[in-house]
Amino acid sequence: MVAKATPETTAAAATGSRLFAGLTPRSAYLQAVRLYGDPGLFVRANLLVLWLAAFVLFWVFNPIKALPYPSEIWTALSQMFAAQGSQGLVYNTYVTLKLNVVGLLYSTVLSLLIAYMSVLPFFQPFNKLVQWLRYIPIIGFNLVFLTLFTIGWPMKVAMLTVGMSFFLVTSMTAVIASIPKMKFELARVLGYSDLETFYSVVVRGTGPQMIEVIAQNAAIGWVMITAIETYNRTEGGIGSQIYAYSSVNNLPAVYAYLIVIGVIAVAEDWLFALLKRVLFPYTTVAERA
Predict the structure, then answer these.
(1) 142 touches 85 (CB < 8 A)
(2) Is the CA virtual torsion 237, 240, 244, 247 positive or negative?
(3) Which sequence spans correspond to the domains of the chain?
(4) In degrees to the nearest 10, what's the CA dihedral of 216, 220, 225, 231?
(5) 109-113 contacts: CB < 8 A, separation 24 or more?
(6) Who contacts 93 (Cβ-Cβ below 8 Å, separation ≥6)?
(7) Which residues contact 159 (CB under 8 A, 6 or more apart)?
(8) pLDDT tens digits, one per residue of 130-180
(9) Whole-number Å distance between alpha carbons of 256 and 81
(10) CA distances from 104 to 101, 162, 183, 185 (A)
(11) What are the CA-CA distances from residue 3 to residues 6, 9, 11, 52, 196 (Å)?
(12) Fold of the domain spanning 71-288
C-alpha cells in the first residue's frame, strides 16, 4: 500500500527543494548547518550519551559468552534485592559501604597526619618507608592484623585503613612537595610565623588537591574491599558475595554486584566534587576561567 501525499508534505518538500536548489554540496552543507545546527556540535555535546548507547549495543549483541546479557543481570538484581538477611543485596551493600566509608575516613586522617609531618626532616624517613610499603600486598600483613585485632569487623577496617594509607600518603606527599618555594618566601615576607606559614601554605593551600587525591584513591579502596571481604567473609559484604557467586559460576549475580560498585563509585566522585565546590569555591571559579 502506497501512502498518499498530503498538502502538508508536498509543501514541506517544495520548501526544502527551494532552500537547497542550485547549491553546491559544500554550500548545501553550510546552509543545513545554518538552519539545523552543526552536527559536530551536537556530537560533542552528547558524547557521553553516544558512548553509553554504543556500550549498551555492544552489551546486547556481544560475542563474549562469559558476559551475561542485561536481562540476566536485571533478573539477578531483582532476586538479590528480594532476598532477605545475609543473602540480600541491600544488606551486603550496606556492610561494604559502611566498611568503605569508615576505612576511607580513618585512612584520610592518618595519611594527612603522616604527609603533613613530612615537612619536618625528622619524619621524612618514616614517610618514605610508608610509601615503600605500598608495593607489598595487604594480605602480607595478615599475621600482624591477627595479632592486634580479632577476626571480623575490626580486622577488616584495619586492613582497609592501612592498605589505603600507603597510597594516600604517597599522593599527598607529592602534592606537598609540589608547592612552589615562592609561597613559603612570600609568607616570610608577610611576617607569618612558622605555624601560620604551615597552615596557610601547606594545609589550606593544598586543600583542594587533597580532596582530589582522596577521591582518586577511594577507588583503590573498592579494589581492596573485594579482596579483604573474600579473605575475611565474616558479616558478609559485596566481596564475600562475589566470591560465593563466582565459585558456583553465577556470572549474572557477579556482574550485578560489579554494577552496584560502579554506581556507588560514581556517586562518591560526585560527592567529592560537591565537597570541593563547597569548601573551596574559588577553585571552581578559577577552573571556569
Answers:
(1) no
(2) positive
(3) 13-52, 71-288
(4) -170
(5) 110/161, 110/165, 111/164, 111/165, 111/168, 111/169, 111/172, 112/172, 112/210
(6) 238, 260, 264
(7) 138, 141, 145, 224, 228, 232
(8) 999 888 877 777 777 777 777 778 888 888 898 899 999 999 999 999 988
(9) 11
(10) 5, 10, 30, 34
(11) 9, 11, 16, 36, 81
(12) MetI-like fold (1.10.3720)
Residue 170 C-alpha cell reads as 604517597
- The vertex-267 CA angle with 76 and 66, nearest 5°, equals 35
Is pLDDT above 60 for 4?
A: no
What is the number of other CB atoms lying within 10 angstroms of the CB of residue 70?
Answer: 13
Whether pLDDT at 7 is above 60: no
Radius of gyration of the chain (CA): 28
The answer to whether residues 227 and 138 touch, using CB atoms and an 8 Å cutoff, is: yes
Q: Rounded to the nearest 5°, which phi and psi values hold at 4?
A: -85, 145
Reported residue count of the chain is 289
The predicted model scores a pTM of 0.75
